[in-house]
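Why does this matter for the project? Reviewers at the last site visit asked to see concrete outputs rather than summary tables. In response, this paragraph embeds two records directly. Each consists of the residue sequence and, immediately after it, the corresponding structure tokens. Nothing has been edited or filtered.
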Amino acid sequence: MVNRQGKTRLPKYYMPLDDSAKHKVHRLVVNRDSKFTNFVEFHVQKITYRHYAGLCFSMCDDVTDNELVYLECIHLFVEILDHFFSNVCELDLVSNFHKAAGLACL
């Protein structure tokens, strides 16, 4: 999850990714026009992303996986955050990082 300024909030990586690759993913996702789909190819993976207010939630998945499942997972996670924090905003995630990270592990 990143904000519009490029600050990463609540990162979770399952494989090593250098800073330049993270920056490329951020630029691909944030600067993409809203008339395009929420899926973009990146190297041999696919990035599935969704914008909510000032935050962008993204997941990297295999090209053979179903993108809509990942899009639903992102939406479900945002709904859980919204229910837990009562209208979640970026400040909630920053000030209650340990709670949000615990929800991300579920």
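We now turn to the second protein, recorded in exactly the same manner.
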Amino acid sequence: MYSLASRGITLASTATAAARRMFTASASHGYQTRLGQYYQNTLRDDITILEYVPPKVRAEQQAVEEARMQATRENITGTPPNPNKKHKKVRLPKAKVPEVTAHNAPFVKSVTVHIRCREALQNKHHLLSALMALQVVTGARGEVIKSKSDASTWKLRKGMPIAAKVELTGDRMLEFLDKLVEVVLPRMKEYHGLRMGSGDGSGSFTLGFDPSVIGLFPEMEVVYDQFPLITGFHVNINTTAVRNPSGRLLLSGFGLPFIHARKPASETFQL
């Protein structure tokens, strides 16, 4: 009798734990997204092979870069800065491109989804629609952004709420990227991809979308009519790449399209 009772208690506790795991919002231990598995199993090795540079060629590239920097320092002309006056901050030199291995291959560091709401200048309650849209699309609670200065042209005062953003990392970030690339972008009629010259020079890229695109997310289709105000949004993808080519290689591996500048037909086809 005692063994049956103890066994029943054990089964009940096991069922309770299983129910908690079923309805919990956090991911279980060892969970990995589809995009994360694809990067670990395939894309990381491909990027390592594609970005491999032989040691001799790398030494020649570094020598050319150092010679160019030295020539730039020697050919500086103009009036030297006055030490008694405040000057703008000097832009720091870019970091050197490290040798890519399987341990430091480029990866996505964070994704920021940003919505700027102009209607919030007249009524700050319009910002609630942007906050709810961000929470529906990303699954994370948004953060209100307030203005840092005054702008009399736009009737903007310091401290007024004007925008909302969400910064995603980890599995939530990869799930959002997977959804954006596999579901949203193919459903857009007139989207060809990012330009090859896009990027900030340090491996980060920004995509801008109009208000009609946010309704293409599967979560927004059900509750789209309940939003009184729909606005456009921006997606900033911050990667660990040091240069834009490495970032483009990573994002193209994830399925984000890039377009090349096409030459005129007169230059391409010659009779």
